[in-house]
Amino acid sequence: MTPEQEQVIDNETLPAKTKEQLKKFLSEKNISDDQFEEIIERVNSEYMSTRIEACEAVGVIAAQSIGEPGTQMTMRTFHYAGVAEINVTLGLPRLIEIMDARKEPSTPTMTIYLEPEFGADRDRAREVSWQIEAATLQEFGDITIDMQDMQVVVHLNSAVCEKRKIPVGTIIETAPRKIRERRHYRDFEHESDEKEGVINFMPKSRESYQNLFQLAEHVRKVIVQGIDDIERVVVRKESGEYILYTEGSNLKDVFDVEGVDTRRTRTNNINEISQVLGIEAARNAIIHEAVSTLNEQGILVDVRHIMLVADMMCLEGEVKQIGRHGIAGEKESVLSRAAFEVTVNHLLDAAVANEVDELSGVTENVIVGQPIQLGTGDVKLIAKPMN
Amino acid sequence: MQSYTRYERARIIGARALQISMGAPLLITTEKCDPLEIAIEEFQQNIIPITVKRK
Prior knowledge:
The structure holds two protein chains of two kinds. Chain A is α+β, with helices and mostly antiparallel strands. Chain A has helices at about 5-10, 15-25, 35-50, 60-70, 90-100, 115-120, 120-130, 160-165, 170-180, 210-220, 250-255, 270-275, 280-295, 305-315, 335-340, 345-350, 360-370; strands at about 80, 90, 110, 135, 140-145, 150-155, 190-195, 200-205, 225, 230-240, 240-245, 265, 380-385. In chain A, strands 10-11-3-12 form a four-stranded antiparallel β-sheet. In chain A, strands 5-6-8-7 form a four-stranded antiparallel β-sheet. In chain B, about 45% of the residues lie in helices and about 5% in strands. Chain B has one domain: RNA polymerase subunit, RPB6/omega (Eukaryotic RPB6 RNA polymerase subunit, Alpha-Beta Complex), CATH 3.90.940.10. Chain B has two helices and one strand; from the N terminus they run H-H-E. The interface of A and B includes residues 378, 382, 383 and 384 of A. Strand 13 of chain A pairs antiparallel with strand 1 of chain B.
């Protein structure tokens, strides 16, 4: 391929990806100018034929194209995807979850990629996982209830602390603080001995055993290392690097952990992505999640349908669900809303509020019996002067 | 020749076929009788005096 030909490809109105593929395909080949011209012409006509014409009812087509394969999805899948042990909602329930824009998915998970120097080494990857996985105090030592002195005694195991790379002093400091802040239990005092690795917790009222046992429960369950929302971390090797899979999701805090590759790390909590990374990232996450959920079931849907849905969900700057409380429920037109669900309520409210319907959408015009703004209905004819 | 989408084509041919069926003078000489077929032939020759207004 000559540089001039490359120039010609660059000047065509083709998508960047097609141009690249074309260049790559032609790079090693020796072709005459005539052949090149024909190739360009055919590629162009093929590209034009895949484009959607103006006035096409893309929304209806997208709905059909996602809905029909959706009927073939398994209703309930309790599936261990990819990683043994970690349970992820898949199939139809997951698809519904995405479209409903739930605040929290039923099984939040993260896929955490590591920086090269951490991802290459198993031990270093494990170290990062300890920074992330929530670990309770009982994992770091023995917890005993001293009935005689009405106190809970924690003997920290220094070997475990060493292995998990957390200083004894840090645990002594965090444990009481976290019980107060995260578990909202404040009726206790504590004293500690850093050298011995001992913490004593005393309930404020020394009268009842109930308080003592309650306190012991809080002491056992308090999270002293890792990120609170992330219950479990599994380290796996995939295509030459170690990747962390988690149960539970907290994007913001995981990004703060050293060694995490923030560009590739992802969560399946779309709402969280929109909060932390913004609406464009949320749109991409919706597309990615929907496509992978469908593909996992062996269903192939053109991304453009899903992109349209994702665009509609993110149009207003926040992730909105498809349905009553989201897109369909917030339409401008009264008639359009009334046609969707709870007809009488919408009409009544509109009458009380003295609403006006501009009849600019499709549904409203169908209801009043006018041509709709789609297909041939959206074409305006004018006279063409002869000669 | 300007390229039309299939909806624009349908609309132009439809409008012209209606004119022909109501007795408008033809712009081509043809053997055909059906106004729709005549309109299609006129469209193919690009002599229908109708075009579309795009937004």
